[in-house]
Specification:
With about 325 residues, the protein is α+β, with helices and mostly antiparallel strands. Helices cover about 25% and strands about 30% of the residues. The protein has two domains: about 130 residues, VC0802-like (2-Layer Sandwich); about 170 residues, Aminopeptidase. Bound molecules: coenzyme A (COA).
Amino acid sequence: MTAEKDLHTLLATMHPEVREGEFVYVLWPHGRPLAGAVAAAVREAEGLTVVLPRADADSLGLPYDFVGAWITLQVHSSLEAIGLTAAVSAALTQAKISCNVLAGFHHDHILVPVADADRALEVLHELVAASGEDKPAPELVLRSEQPADRPAILDLTAAAFAVSPVTGLPVQGEPEEVELVRALFDCEEYLPEFSIVAELGGDVVGHVISTRGRVGELELLGLGPIGVLPRLQRHGIGSALMKETIARGNAAGERGIALLGDPEYYSRFGFVPSTSLGVAAPDPDWGIYFQLLPLAVWPGGVSGTFRYAKPFGIA
Ligand SMILES: CC(C)(COP(=O)(O)OP(=O)(O)OC[C@H]1O[C@@H](n2cnc3c(N)ncnc32)[C@H](O)[C@@H]1OP(=O)(O)O)[C@@H](O)C(=O)NCCC(=O)NCCS
């Protein structure tokens, strides 16, 4: 995703909001316990800077110069907001309004001189309008992967699996799913119409791949990996990719889809533990995490062990 497009969306959704009251920066007296409604603090070698309501500074007898209005930009990701704060401070500078930027875990905040608060809000609202707030949200497109999509798919797979879904811990180096997807693209069990990308505003933001798997002679689909860009997770993109795979599977007369994953997520699409349909997992230790979705033409009476495409490296 290009930074420019990102910024466009971020600007359109920043929702500037003014906090009530006036805020001041004070240098906290060394050794004195913190007091008052501290809104932000920065420790430096020279001392502790504290931002707090003006009334608190007055009652504590702390001196200050700058009296500011506090504006919060209600965007979600602090990482994404890097470009945002640069754009915001540039716009305010152009309007000759000085601003101090504070980045919190969830949002970015700017403090502008109290006297300029209304004008600052106007500038910010103009920025929102110029970024096309009223434009309709880009539509999610689901389509078969094209060879040109592969670098983007590998990048998003690396991002999606940077934290292991099994351990919940950050992965050192390239997640193994990246090499797996790379190998699946070139294996003989690759099925072009079951490598599906989700595209948003022209960018690949999600991908799912299903390859040929078997139980004895019975051909099934082995689904995975599936990944969505972390910042867009929990927005329905994974579900859309799952439903598209199921719809394509039914349309193609596939019998069923097998996968390894959390039943809490996949049961919503109709997946059940594979053993309940007579299919054993390639690794018996997978237990209920190995699941199967019988499609419209599931034959019944199936018995045997599921075999994934060769790149999975499981017998
Ligand atoms: C798993 C993944 C593909 C789901 O895509 P998504 O776009 O985030 O999911 P959706 O928005 O369609 O669905 C979100 C719902 O699924 C749930 N969900 C998502 N991942 C889940 C998981 N691993 N376990 C249980 N529930 C999960 C969410 O809680 C949410 O439930 P809710 O709607 O009841 O709040 C995506 O989160 C992802 O890429 N994760 C990292 C890689 C990964 O774990 N891949 C799957 C390995 S089996």
